[in-house]
Specification:
This protein is of the alpha/beta class. The protein folds into two domains: 6-164, Multidrug-efflux Transporter Regulator, Chain: A, Domain 2, CATH 1.10.1660; 169-291, 3-Layer(aba) Sandwich (Rossmann fold). 57% of the residues lie in helices and 10% in strands. It has helices at 6-13, 17-26, 44-58, 63-66, 71-80, 84-100, 104-118, 120-141, 146-165, 189-201, 214-224, 242-252, 282-291, and strands spanning 33-34, 40-41, 176-180, 204-209, 228-232, 258-261, 276-279. The strands form two sheets. The chain has a five-stranded parallel sheet with strand order 4-3-5-6-7, with helices on both faces. α3 (44-58) crosses α5. The longest helix has 22 residues, at 120-141.
Length: 292
């Protein structure tokens, strides 16, 4: 059993913490545990129940009605929801539930079914990215076990690689992009997705992968002469120095546009100058793709 905080439940379910507390007082579907110091925490079962309650409430069921449902009745009602948004949320919640229970086979079955019916790109944008956005909040606070993180990311990584290998775009764009992650950055999923999107658009990609020293990137760039350098910063090691990284990029690539995306771009407060360019949101990344 894992101990989730009320903030974790808020991030995963979309239900505000103060609303969760009110529901606890008025209804019986949530029964938090208490530490020796009287701090409430929640198990896997409470998390999964709240995910069910949240989706039913969002799509029209009253809390007082939901409170009287058994678990099987909740699941039946969720399966009967036919709105497209409800379908996506149901799939995302199912991935979360299988992750916390380490149900590897079921997790992979859900992704395989989505890819078969929707294709890899829609599966990534409509299911995988929202899923990662939710659980990413937990990875940063340490409430998701590293084993769960590795199990999830490795399965998704496999799907992305298969999708990249299957790209057969007859339209070619006369542009090339070199993609890499800096030293001690191993969160590769967003970079793999960008590689897929670029290849699917007809752009030539030079994919270097994780934890690459800048001097090695510079050597390959000098040989391949890409039109853009692209990197993504999710979380980096304690020794990572953003200022030093920016200075190194400017030194090694004074004339090549360098695109940096990822959540760390939102924490950097100093002014950046060309050739460095931040893409601070998914929408900005997609706009960069469209402009190529």
């Amino acid at each position: 059993m894992h101990a989730f905080t009320i903030k974790d439940l808020e991030n995963l379910s979309g239900i505000k913490a103060h609303t969760i507390r009110i529901w606890e007082q008025r209804y019986s579907f949530l029964k938090p545990h208490r530490t020796d110091t009287n701090i409430r925490y929640y198990s896997n079962e409470e998390l999964k129940t709240l995910l069910n309650v949240a989706i039913l409430n969002k799509f029209g069921f009253k809390i007082s009605h939901i409170d009287k449902m058994t678990e099987s009745e909740m699941n039946e009602k969720i399966l009967s929801l036919n709105q497209l948004d409800a379908l996506y949320e149901r799939l995302i919640n199912a991935l979360i539930k299988n992750m916390v229970d380490l149900e590897i086979e079921n997790f992979e079955i859900i992704l395989n079914d989505c890819i078969e019916t929707k294709g890899i790109e829609k599966t990534i944008t409509q299911i995988i990215f929202p899923f990662l956005e939710k659980i990413g909040m937990l990875w940063l606070t340490g409430h998701i076990n590293p084993g769960q993180e590795h199990f999830v990311t490795n399965i998704i990584r496999q799907k992305l690689i298969v999708g990249i290998d299957r790209v057969t775009n007859t339209v070619k764009i006369d542009k090339s992009v070199l993609l890499f992650l800096p030293e001690n950055e191993y969160h590769e999923l967003s970079l793999l997705f960008m590689n897929y999107m670029l290849k699917n658009k007809g752009v030539t990609t030079i994919y270097l992968g994780c934890s690459i020293p800048l001097k090695d990137v510079a050597y390959l760039a000098s040989v391949k002469q890409p039109d853009y350098i692209y990197t993504h910063l999710t979380t980096v090691g304690a020794r990572f120095n953003f200022d030093k990284f920016i200075t190194g990029l400017s030194k090694y690539f004074p004339k090549t546009p360098v695109i940096i995306s990822g959540q760390l771009t939102n924490t950097y407060e100093k002014k950046i100058l060309p050739p460095i360019n931040f893409k601070k949101s998914y929408a900005e990344v997609m706009a960069f793709l469209s402009d190529l």
